[in-house]
Every structure is written in C-alpha cells, then in structure tokens.
Design a protein that fits this description.
The protein is α/β, with parallel strands linked by helices. Helices cover 42% and strands 11% of the residues. The structure holds pyridoxal-5'-phosphate (PLP). It comes from Salinispora arenicola.
C-alpha cells in the first residue's frame, strides 16, 4: 500500500544528508532486539533514560521565559522535513534532533510566568512513577496484566473516596482525564435513568427526552458526552449563574420544575467544583439538597477543584461534595501530577456494572465469580496506563499535606493577583475565585468596549509571540477577557505585576495606534463587567 504524501509541508528544502551507516545499523533482528528492554539491555536502558533526563534538566535549568514564541508556520517545516523512514541509529543524535524540533520551543509550565492553562508544574516523585510505570508497562485492565498495580489503583480510589467523604460502598477507576470521567459518569447516570424501561420503542423515546442540567459555566465536555450518549441536541440545559458565577440554586429549582412539568426526565445535574473559566465552586450543599428532593443523580465535576481535598485550610469549600452520586477528579490539574492522571468516583459501586462487558478472551464472567480483580469490568478503556503509580509515589514521598499546601499557596497567590488587578484602574476583574483563577480585562476609562476587546486580544498575542508570559483568553458576557490560571507556587506578586504592566503596555499601544476606536464617552459608557 502506498501512503499519501505527508500532509506537513516540506518547505521545498533538500533533505539533509544523513550518514548511511546509521540507517542500516539497526537492520537485523539482533540489533533491533537490543533496543527492547530485557535482561541483556539494562545498561542501555539506564544510560538512555539518564541522557534523556539530562536533556530535560538542562532545558529546565536554562529557560528564561515560558515560551520562545515560535509560530506554527516556523515549526511545522522543521518537523515536516524529518525523514521518518531513515532512523538516526543512536539516541544521542535523536535527542539532538528532538531538541531542535521540540524541547527548544516547548511551553514550560514550571516557569513563574506560565499563567495560561490548568497545566501544573509536576512533582518529581510523580515523574519517577511515570518513568517506572512505562518501563514495566502493566495494563490495568486485567489482574493477569497488572497484579499488584491493580491494588495500588484500588487503594488510591479508596483513599480519594475517603477524602471526599463518600460512603463505604464507594468505588471508581482511573481515567485519561476529566473529559472521559464526565462521559463515564454520565453514561452511568443515563443507564440508571433508563434502567426500568426495557421496551425498545419506549427506550428510544426516553433517550430523546432525557435532560442534563449544568450551569452556564459548566465544562464543554458535558455537551460532548451528551452527544456521544445519543441524547437529543438540546439535552443539556444550562442553568444561570449568580454574579459570583456559581450555579444559582433557585434557577436550578425552576429548571427541575420545568423539566418535570414538560415530562423531560432529568438524568443528571452536573455541578462544577472549580469552573474552568472562573475557578468558582457551585453551591454544592444546596444543589445536593435539590437533587435529593427531586431524586436526580448528582455528578460533581471537580476536575479542577479536587486539589482542595488535601488542602489544610480550604477543604470546607468542597462541603457537600460527599453527596455526589459520581464525581470527576483530575489529579493532573491540582495534585501536581503529569498528564494523564484522573479518576471517576461513584457513591455506589453497583452502578459501575453499566460499563461491564465480559469477553471470553479477557475477563470472562467466570473470573468475576471467582473474584479476580479485573479493573476492565469498571472502565470504559481496555488497555490502560498505570497512572495511579504517579499519585502513589507522590503520596508516599511527599504526603497529602504537602500537595495541599502547594495548592493552597497558588490559591493565595491568585487572590493576591485578583486584588492587584482590582485596585489597578487599567483593569476590570470578574468574580473573585476561591481557587487559582483571575479573569480580567484591560479597560481604562474612555476606551470603547470594542476597542478594548481588540486591544486585549492583541496584548495576549503579543505576550505569546514574545514568550514573556503565557496568559489565557476567554469571552465573558460577549467581551474579550484575559485569564490567569495560577498553578505554580513559584509565581510571585512581582511576576503578576510585570505581566499586568506588559499587558497594559501592549494594549495601550494598540489602542493608541487605532485612535478611531477611541470614544469621548464618559466612564459609565465604558465596558462594564457584571
Ligand atoms: C479540565 C476540565 C475538564 C476536562 O478535563 P481533561 O482532563 O482536560 O479532559 C472537565 N471539567 C472541568 C471543570 C475542567 O476544568
């Protein structure tokens, strides 16, 4: 079979010459086999891994900004020009090449001015776990591919469930991320909602009428899940938020009533503990009360806010989370774990059966009867990484209080940053987050809102292009805003002040160069944020 031409533009450059000896040295099975990790290759394993670690360490030590600002058009040909059918034959040369095409222009989340997304600096014990789990390469689907790893994962699910305060029947499984955890939880909720209905026609009708309620600030993965679960296009009903961007319980009550009157069964309410955009936490006790009264499944999406589970001072912000029927936790956001490390937890282990299928070759029903602990019986995935090892080593080396203290610290840093922006007349801020998010907008008096929109977008692009800082952008009530997501305890107020100054400088220059957008209208006509 011939493959189509590589879609990455080759930029018309001639292919650089490679020493031919290198490309043939791996031509025999014996030579190739020496690359497989086995008793005879442990020296190579040690050396190669150590060299890779050294390359990363040197880069980490040397970076002076979170990003080089390289544009996609500059980088694409570097990757595109590489001839994948002509191996370099040794890892040193491959690492040199990799430095050119990746490491040199990577985005560095350990840098104090890396403020854009929910990527955290990573705990070294977790990196140790990552290196070990990939070398041993267990797959967590069945006991006979995993053995003890199965119990490590189960202990961590149990540990997390205890932290949440779920009951003795709680259970769960690690997943690839919050998106998958939300999908998994909503699959279970859908199956519970449809459990009593067996007739095929009646099931089809019910499926088309099921609704999911979540706030306007809920994560978009809820919409994706609804689509994958075969629900109607209008199945996700958004509930309005209050001025603090938290789901309004009265509005939830009204939507629950409206759905009941319209005979639209609500299969789940998704509350968010840490909205991605605002870092706000829905009022969980009040939402849980309303769900219990209506007999509706409560899913809590704590992908971001889960770090509070180990917080020494802020754990109470999650009060009510223990009433969830299911919840999502992303250790790779607020537990300082490398991607990926996430889990879905459920209050009652029995609901996990909705994702159980028995395959004769893998996990026959007989194995379940014999109490063989096959995690695939609980998971949407089959082959699955031993991501739990990273959290395990982090807890065994650092302990939960240390992780919680780090997360507390970034929440405090973000609170300081919010106050800085709030008292600065050049900026307007949105809802103060109890977590680590600051949403704001450059908007001095007298600047037309449309011009401010453009100036904020321009400032963000300029920051990225210079690599001086990485900040996120979002839209709030139709207006362009900027966002800091602080997950790095090394970020200081001086870093925040510097970045705010840079934003004001870029935005101010843009506004100055586009004077037609200026307005003489007074302050009350300038942009305002709820
Ligand atoms: C990040 C996030 C998700 C998605 O999680 P991934 O791990 O990126 O798949 C879901 N919900 C919330 C609230 C999030 O912040």
């Amino acid at each position: 079979m011939t493959l189509p031409a590589d879609p990455v533009p080759l930029d018309g450059k001639p292919t650089p010459a490679r020493p031919d000896a290198l490309s043939t040295s791996v031509g025999t099975v014996a030579a190739a086999q020496a690359y497989l990790l086995a008793d005879g290759s442990v020296d190579r394993y040690r050396q190669v891994l150590a060299d890779g670690v050294d390359r990363v360490a040197r880069r980490v030590a040397a970076v002076d900004r979170p990003f080089t600002g390289i544009a996609p058009d500059e980088l694409a040909p570097l990757v595109g020009d590489i001839e994948l059918d002509r191996p370099l034959g040794d890892h040193g040369t491959a690492l040199d090449e990799l430095d050119e095409v990746w490491l040199r222009d990577a985005v560095w989340f350990h840098h104090p001015r890396s403020l854009a997304h929910l990527n955290c600096p990573v705990a070294i014990p977790a990196l140790l776990g990552e290196a070990m789990l990939t070398a041993v390469n267990p797959s967590l689907d069945t006991w006979d591919q995993s053995a003890g790893a199965t119990f490590i994962e189960r202990r961590l699910i149990g540990w997390t469930a205890t932290r949440v305060g779920l009951g003795p029947s709680a259970d769960g499984v690690f997943t690839s991320g919050g998106t998958q955890s939300n999908l998994h939880a909503l699959l279970l909720a859908r199956e519970e909602a449809m459990a009593q209905v067996t007739d095929a026609d009646a099931r089809a009708v019910l499926l088309s009428r099921l609704r999911i309620l979540t706030s306007t600030a809920g994560h978009f993965s809820v919409q994706k899940a609804a689509k994958l679960l075969g629900l109607a296009p209008d199945a996700v009903v958004t509930v309005e938020t209050d001025a603090a961007r938290r789901m309004c319980p009265q509005a939830l009550g009204r939507e629950l009533d409206r759905c009941r009157r319209a005979d639209l069964p609500v299969m789940a309410v998704v509350a968010t503990a840490g909205t991605t955009d605002f870092g706000t936490i829905d009022p969980l006790p009040e939402i849980a009360r309303r769900c219990a009264a209506a007999g509706v499944w409560l899913h809590v999406d704590a992908a971001y806010g889960c770090g509070l589970l180990v917080s020494p001072t802020r754990r109470h912000l999650l009060d009510g989370i223990e009433q969830a029927d299911s919840l999502t936790v992303d250790y790779h956001k607020s537990f300082f774990q490398p991607v990926s490390s996430s889990a879905i937890l459920v209050q009652d282990t029995r609901v996990l059966r909705h994702a159980t299928y028995h395959a004769d070759y893998l996990n026959p029903a007989r194995a379940a009867a014999e109490r063989i602990p096959n995690q695939v019986d609980k998971s949407l995935q089959t082959t699955r990484r031993f991501d739990a090892l990273k959290l395990w080593l982090t807890l065994r080396v650092m302990g939960p209080d240390a992780i919680g203290a780090l997360f507390d610290e970034v929440c405090a840093r973000a609170d300081d940053a919010w106050a800085l922006a709030d008292t600065d007349p050049r900026f307007e801020v949105v809802a103060r987050s109890p977590l680590s998010t600051v949403v704001f907008r450059w908007c001095p008096t007298g600047i037309a809102p449309e011009l401010a929109d453009e100036a904020n977008r321009h400032a963000r692009n300029q920051l990225t292009a210079s690599g001086a800082a990485m900040v996120a952008g979002t839209t709030v009530d139709g207006r362009a805003h900027l966002k800091f997501t602080l997950l790095n305890p090394a970020t200081t107020s001086a870093d925040v002040t510097l970045v705010l100054d840079l934003i004001a400088e870029h935005a101010g220059r843009y506004a100055h160069d586009h004077p037609l957008g200026r307005t003489d209208r007074t302050a009350d006509m300038s942009c305002s944020v709820v």
